[in-house]
Write a structure and sequence with these properties.
Layout lengths: L1 H24 L7 H23 L3 H22 L4 E2 L2 E2 L4 H4 L41 H24 L4 H24 L9 H10 L3 H15 L8 H5 L9
Helix pairs in contact: 1-2, 2-3, 5-6, 5-7, 6-8, 7-8
């Protein structure tokens, strides 16, 4: 009986692995993105069911494993695919994956294979599909929420050092890394003539509150400095990603 139970568990484990592998390789097949999306979420559901049955009748562990597997495939979908589509909008980490499905574009070349990270083709190649993104890769919303998270981690490390038994190295490293990111972000935003925080004022306020105002101070100093002495090199990813910003080059 024990051997049979082990064999069944191995079967379910193999099915889970197969679902993950299939989900990560769908874009290698000549399938429409909508078809890839349906296969991916069918696989995510199947993996969750297999995880549940693998440890059933231990109900608590079964539910925990099912939720963990589905959440993991959802996170993978957000980080590396355009498969999360809700109400016609695609939610993904990168701007390439956030673009409309190629089959929804009016100018798609049907002879070319559909790749999940290829933006929909536009009638005018100079049109910027993600005008506020950083380097054409990450949206300004994503970057600024990431800065809030980093600010929170840095603040926790500094607070632990000042008020408990936190490590000085962790506090200094976190604060220094955040300061560098803040200065670079402020200088980049102003150099390419973007508004403060690229319009993400809520995240700017939260990060500033978390860091007792130091985030806003460093950002605004860097932003004002770049207004006076902008740096707009043609080699910059911002220059290559945003055609409408190239006219600002001195």
């Amino acid at each position: 009986m024990g051997v049979r139970q082990i064999n069944v568990q191995h079967l379910f484990l193999g099915l889970i692995i197969l679902c993950f592998v299939a989900g990560l390789t769908l874009d290698f097949f000549n399938l429409s993105r909508s078809t890839q999306r349906r296969f991916y979420w069918a696989g995510a559901g199947l993996a969750a069911i297999a995880g549940f049955l693998m440890v059933y009748p231990n109900l608590k562990n079964a539910i925990g494993i099912a939720v963990t597997l589905f959440a993991t495939m959802t996170l993978i979908a957000y980080l590396s695919t355009p498969y999360i589509k809700i109400g016609g909008r695609i939610y993904a980490l990168t701007t390439g994956d956030q673009q409309p499905d190629p089959e929804d574009s009016l100018t798609v070349d049907d002879s070319a294979p559909h790749q999940h990270n290829a933006p929909a083709q536009l009638a005018d190649p100079l049109i910027d599909s993600a005008p506020d993104s950083y380097d054409g890769t990450l949206s300004h919303v994503t970057v600024w929420w990431a800065l809030v998270v980093i600010a929170g981690i840095a603040a926790v490390n500094v607070g632990a050092f000042l008020f408990s038994d936190g490590k000085a190295a962790a506090a200094a490293g976190g604060a220094g890394f955040l300061a560098l990111l803040t200065i670079i972000t402020g200088y980049c935003d102003a150099s390419w003539d973007y508004p403060i925080a690229r319009g993400q004022y809520l995240q700017l306020a939260i990060a500033s509150l978390i860091t007792a105002g130091s985030f806003a101070l460093l950002y605004l100093i860097a932003y004002d400095t770049a207004r006076r002495f902008p740096l707009r090199r043609k080699q910059s990813p911002e220059y290559r990603a945003h055609p409408h910003r190239r006219k600002t080059e001195p």
